[in-house]
From TrEMBL:
InterPro entries: NO2/SO3_Rdtase_4Fe4S_dom, NO2/SO3_Rdtase_4Fe4S_sf. SUPFAM superfamilies: Nitrite and sulphite reductase 4Fe-4S domain-like. One of its GO terms (molecular function) is metal ion binding. Keywords: Iron, Iron-sulfur, Metal-binding, Methyltransferase, Transferase. It comes from Paenibacillus pasadenensis. This is Cobalt-precorrin-3b C17-methyltransferase. Residues 103-201 form the Nitrite/sulphite reductase 4Fe-4S domain. One of its GO terms (biological process) is methylation. It comes from the Bacteria. The lineage of its organism: Bacteria, Bacillati, Bacillota, Bacilli, Bacillales.
């Protein structure tokens, strides 16, 4: 029997992208005892189960309010803080729209994008491939963070003082450049190092790539 893997996330709410107990209970009851569930570092659960049941199971999970995405070399769901400053001050609406714009796109290497509603950065956004940090009424974007290995590093400042309506165009443009110019299995942090911040800034400013 063939097995296949897919990703499950809880969606957004004030309080962050957290699984509710009832969602986990539903997940376990629907996928069955023969499925394998893996906890990832990007707030998704990977479910591996029999291929012939996946379509039916995914419909049931969506009906339970869970978000279904492909597993593997794709952009992951937005990794957020817990919006402790409140939905409006922390930009929950922006995070929801950004997640919808970026998730599930095929990329050379799995891409993790972080969001923080203030400079405290409790979601550790600067350790993600791309980071969006709300700074009062504008946003800063960082690129090239790396959380794993002996070469772990913080992301570099790519753009600052960005208004709300420019966040999604800039982030999706960065993803498009990575899709076009990234090498197979090349981590985004190495991609940024290879192209340089200056070149990325130029390409997104002029619209060429």
């Amino acid at each position: 029997m063939a097995y296949k893997k897919f990703a499950v996330s809880p969606g957004f709410q004030e309080g962050g992208s957290l699984f509710k107990p009832e969602q986990l209970a539903i997940l376990g009851s629907i996928v069955g005892d023969d499925a394998k569930i893996e906890l990832t570092t990007f707030k998704q659960l990977y479910v591996e189960m029999q291929d012939d049941r996946i379509d039916t199971v995914q419909v049931q999970l969506k009906e339970a309010g869970l978000d279904i995405q492909p597993a593997g070399f794709y952009t992951k769901n937005l990794i957020t803080c817990n919006f402790c400053r409140g939905a409006d001050d922390a930009g929950l609406n922006v995070a929801v729209q950004l997640d919808q714009a970026i998730v599930g796109q095929e990329v050379p290497s799995p891409l993790k994008i972080g969001y923080a509603g203030c400079a405290l950065g409790t979601s550790e956004p600067l350790l993600k491939d791309i980071a969006v940090v709300k700074m009062n009424d504008v946003y800063d974007i960082y690129v090239g963070g790396e959380a794993k290995g002996i070469k772990a590093r913080l992301g570099q400042l790519y753009a600052s003082g960005i208004p709300e309506d420019r966040i999604i165009p800039l982030v999706t443009r960065l993803i498009a450049i990575f899709q076009e110019l990234g090498k197979k299995k090349e981590k985004f942090s190495r991609f940024v190092e290879r192209l340089t911040i200056a070149e990325l800034q130029h390409m997104t400013a002029c619209g060429n790539g």
